[in-house]
Amino acid sequence: MGTIMARTSLYASTILFGGALALSWATHGTGTVVNDAKKHISVPDVLTVPLHVQAAYNGSDVFFRYRWPAPNAGIFHDMLRFTGGKWEVRGNAVPGPQPDGLHEDRVSMMLDDGSVPEFGRYGGYVAIGDKLAGFTEEADGKALKDHPYLGKKLGLDEPTKYLPATRANQNDWASTVPEAEQAKLQSAGYFLDLWHWRAARSNPVGFADDQFITAGRLSDSGRGVYSTNWDGDKKQPRLMFDPARSGGIRALRWDDIVAGKISQDGVHGLKEELSAPFDPNAGWQEGDTIPRRLLRTPQASRADIAVAGKANWIDGYWEVTLRRKMNTEKPLEDKIIRDGGAYQAAFAIHRQATGGRWHYVSLPISVGFGRNAELVATAFTGDTPDWKQAAKPITLFYPGQVSWPHLNSQRHGGAESIGKGIPVKSRHSEEQLAHYGIEAEFAEAIRSQLFLTLFAGLGLIAAFGWALLKSTPKSEA
Amino acid sequence: MAGYHVVLVHFPTALWMTAALAIIYRAFFDGPVAQSIDRALVPLLSIALVFGVSAYLVGLFVWPLEAITASPLGRNHMLLATWTTAYWALLLVLRWRRGQAIWQGSMRFVTAGLAAIGAVLLGITGTLGGHLIGVYTDVSQVLRMLGWEVYTTFYVPNTTVIVLAIVALVLVAIGFRAQTVRS
Fold this sequence. Notes:
The complex is a heterodimer. Chain A contains ten helices and 25 strands. Chain A has helices at residues 2-27, 117-122, 141-146, 148-153, 179-187, 254-258, 404-407, 415-419, 430-441, 443-471; strands spanning 48-57, 61-69, 79-83, 86-90, 106-112, 192-198, 209-213, 217-219, 226-228, 230-231, 236-237, 239-241, 252-253, 270-271, 275-277, 288-291, 293-295, 306-307, 312-314, 317-325, 342-350, 360-361, 365-369, 375-379, 392-397. In chain A, strands 1, 2, 5, 6, 7, 8, 18, 19, 20, 21, 22, 23, 24 and 25 form a 14-stranded mixed β-sheet that branches. Chain A has a four-stranded antiparallel β-sheet with strand order 4-3-16-13. In chain A, strands 9-17-14 form a three-stranded mixed β-sheet, with no helix packed on it. In chain A, a hairpin with a 3-residue loop joins strand 7 and strand 8 (217-219). The relative contact order of chain B is 0.11.
């Protein structure tokens, strides 16, 4: 009887222990990582996206060519829709994909000439400061607008990327160094050039936005490529499509937009030359839709980056080529490209109607002009490169919520390595960083669950040991 | 402390792996060699446990606790190291307290299975440690294929925690009942 009982106990214990292990394996990683709009959390299903980049120069102009997969052509941004007899704004930014698909596709590139030394080692991470927009804990918008330098002087209305030396305290977005110091840093080249192509807000007029990052994400001097087509007082658009110049339409149809029936070859962007003053008595119908942005030719330094040829979305891929003078003669806003120069670049794309921090980014790569580098720009003569050189494959990844203050804090095991200047690529892969970025969004919840799991496992092992011990008869050693 | 930890972990790794092989050999053979191996098992497991606990404690000082509990790989390494140490302690106690009984009947196969699981836990712990210093094996690829991305923290949801707690209580009850019946 005792032997049978002991054997039964042994089998039961083993089966229970094995079953508990199997259950743990089957359910691990579930229940904690869930989207939460209130906390600005929306985790994409796909964590990495390939990007192919080529570069070329002819002595006066530099070209960058980008190709990346996008399931659909995101050629619309925010819109004004006629609904129930009133005009309303549609397509405001949300965490993750905008439900109506109203956020444009983009490709952007941060470029440096070595003046921001950390950038070449850590890429865009150096610009992710304290409490940026879209983070679960983001800076207060009013406090930012009231900030004497960031809000009043620079005109920032949301907490954007900034570089570390522009702040006295890395853990405080508001701790800007004095204005004279900011100017000195910028004069010394302490800024990142930002090329910013937007499928809706710049591409239809053949430009990319020209920006730069110092104390914030700022625009180059001159007129930008878009303005707002919303008359807040009258609660209606300022302009509409001119039927005489837009194929007979005053507005687009909402259903066509959300169904993706309007191609980039059709009328979609409200360009100045296609527009007419808004007529409130034009017999507007439910679902009539007008872009919230008016597109115009940019001016001065803001107009430095043009789309070369035509940016195309074909068969699920965007192919975009940008062109700029190597020397724009604006050394306080642009990185001047020199033959024989070595530069650093990091790339990002937005796709599937996402904005803000819901992008895919790259680690930094070196770019050489007549120099060996990870991406070697090909010298050519004439006006247009032939693009015969192989494209540089780059893995873009979802970065989650990882800031420069965090990376340099006690909470990051690699903080010491950063202090020693060890590049991120020598420690982390893009896939790893994507997972780490997500885990950072749920840091405390996962930490709690980890300890619960650890102690539950320990308890299980101890209980199993007890059951085995008591189910096994004593014997001489 | 990273250097000391790396040096120290070689000892429990080698000793526990040796113990796993010894247990599996003993589970399937009863000859003189198996008997000799068995006699060495308690000292072997004891020394391994001393080195294991030492390596574990030193490992806690490689990074600040704040950092290791914030890094998915660090968390996983700590979790698996804890479980591995506890698990091999269980095997030591079992062999020490129950002696030859663990080789009798079907219990010998349970013991062999436990050793195999212990070796797997040890292998995963070592691989995760390797990841942390940038030197690792393809074990993580195998784990990925089996459904665990090692760059994500291994944790279970609350419902599973509750089930594990219930299973643990049932195991304790089984132990008490077996003890009552035996006495």
